From TrEMBL:
Reaction(s) catalysed (UniProt annotation): 2 superoxide + 2 H(+) = H2O2 + O2
Domain of life per record: Bacteria
Protein name, UniProt field: Superoxide dismutase
Keywords annotated in UniProt: Metal-binding, Oxidoreductase, Signal
A GO term, aspect molecular function: superoxide dismutase activity
UniProt organism field: uncultured Dysgonomonas sp
């Protein structure tokens, strides 16, 4: 009887160990295949209206960004980037991996730069740096919108800083990000048509001018 009981206990232990091992393998596989995930928005999908409409957020964030993330997770499997952080991938990759990593990073910064209670002007050291470079916040905004309007085709316009904290505006085509030039991206406006066409049609400049009303300067300043 004792022998039978001992055998049952051993078998139960083996079954539990097998289940635990399978769970660990499943979790490891999930971690590996879901390395990057869609960031949670700090606002509702309709909270940025009328500057950005709910349908635009649902498509741009929920569909476009999710596709970039899914593609990136699939593309990096079995490569040297499988366990790399997002910024490293953007700096060191090319081709399809770069395109999807760049767009993932770009959109993460983009969507987390907005707030329904945003707008106004930056403060503190960032405000000082803007005034030092452009003379005033209004001058900076005009130059930023002009740069974004002038991007040919699809791309981004960025406010970035160098290692000394000096600011500059950069125009990047397609999935470009100033991080590839040794700069730190602080604020990016998406000028791909899917970012604004439902709300502004072909009026890119109008879209860019309206975005200042929803900028979360606390988030931008934290990157500086």
């Amino acid at each position: 009887m004792k022998k039978i009981l001992f055998t049952c206990i051993m078998l139960s232990g083996l079954i539990i160990s097998s289940v635990n091992a399978q769970n660990i393998n499943n979790n490891n596989q999930k971690t590996r295949t879901m390395k990057f995930e869609l960031p949670k928005l700090p606002y509702a999908t309709n909270a940025l209206e009328p500057v950005i409409g709910q349908q635009t957020i649902e498509l741009h964030y929920g569909k476009h960004l999710q596709t970039y993330i899914t593609n990136l997770n699939n593309l990096i499997q079995g490569t040297k980037f499988e366990n790399a952080d997002l910024e490293t991938i953007v700096k060191e990759s090319d081709g399809a991996i770069f395109n999807n990593a760049g767009q993932t990073l770009n959109h993460n910064i983009y969507f987390l730069s907005f707030s329904p209670n945003g707008g106004g002007e930056p403060k503190g050291k960032l405000a000082e740096a803007i005034n030092a470079e452009w003379g005033s916040f209004e001058n900076f905004k005009k130059e930023f919108v002009t740069a974004g309007t002038g991007v040919f085709g699809s791309g981004w316009v960025w406010l970035a800083k160098d290692n000394a904290g000096k600011l500059q505006i950069t125009k990047e085509p397609n999935a470009g990000n100033p991080i590839t030039k040794g700069l730190t991206p602080l604020l990016g406006f998406d000028v791909w048509e899917h970012a604004y066409y439902l709300d502004y049609q072909n009026r890119r400049a109008d879209h860019l001018a309206e975005l200042w009303k929803i900028i979360d300067w606390n988030a931008v300043e934290a990157r500086y």
